[in-house]
Amino acid sequence: MYKKDFPFFENSSVTYLDNAATTQKPKEVINKVVDYYTHFCSNTHRSNHGDANKATKEFEATRETLKTFINATYTKEIIFTKGVSECLNMLASTFAKEFKTIIISSLEHHSNITPWHMQGRSLHKGLEVVNVKQNLEFDFEHFEELLKANPNSFVSITHVSNAFGVTHDIKEIARLTHKYDSYLLVDAAQSLAHFKVDVQDLDVDFYAMSSHKTFGPTGVGALYVKKELLEKLPVYQTGGATINDVSFERSIMLDAPYKYEAGTQNIAGVIGFKKALDYLNNITLKKVHEVENELYYYLHNELKKIEDIVLYNNTKNAIGSKSFNIKNINSEDIGILLDKMHIAVRAGHHCAQPIMKKLNIDGTIRVSIAFYNTKEDIDIFIKGLKKAIMMLKD
Ligand SMILES: Cc1ncc(COP(=O)(O)O)c(C=O)c1O
Question: Which residues form the Aminotransferase class V domain (predicted)?
Fold first, then answer.
């Protein structure tokens, strides 16, 4: 029903079930990017001519839309970046750098592990990792133990695991984080496209978002920063458009959010991102969640019927991604055969090698759904999977 809104599906015969890697874009997003380059391509926040003013207005309209989308309090709490990876690197090299201890979870994407290593931290040397339980759920007891032993820490946790779809109870994580005088950054790469987020209700301090995982253009992200922390957040990079006044003696920065957005931004991408958010607002995230839930359980039940399957995320609160293996078959071999059948999934470690190592596996096959997928897509995938298994077992 929704595929007609996405030009990719008109032009491709692929059964696309790799939405955790990136999502397809509705035609409004593509048209807006083309419109910008075709009709009013100009820089933002600099020149004062008609096209430049239009570009600036549309750029700022995305900030306003995103503010409302996540229920932030002020527009200036939204800082544009290149994506979640840049948000995490920005905080790791500024605000979070001063903390003695960084606490992450076992289910983090490499983007929330390597920035901490770059600062010379490693396990038990400035970096602590919250365990997961047998069913991959967050171990709250262990989390509280870590916080008790390390008050005034910086906690950085993913909202939804990209490898397994497991969803963390961020509200409870925020409550405990603040109880121990610590700060919370949440990686929202895999949550924003799937359910309604309210940063005030969750009480997060920082929320890192990605446009391309949310039906918008690539190379765009945004960091939500709680207003009272904006004063404490050091500038990450400087240059054009971050400065109020410069002499050879000194630079006086602009106020937030501009002092955090150095150089010419991905204007077309930011403007296009608004169209993705408008599109989602139109369908409503409630509907998105409903459609995806139904697909998720259909997929789960179909997978359960397959002989020798090992399913990893049997938790009630999983979203988007479903991971599994077939005993004695390499996940990447299945991925290659599915690709030959024009079925796009991801096989391998999903940029989450530490949890794969903990589980003693090289990787998994990950099927990740979006609301435009259908039961028919899942039927095609299951049929392809059975064929691949047959070929590899012979
Ligand atoms: C959980 C998670 N965090 C971070 C990232 C990196 O996001 P971005 O591509 O916006 O830098 C990804 C991308 O796969 C992800 O799934």
Answer: 15-381
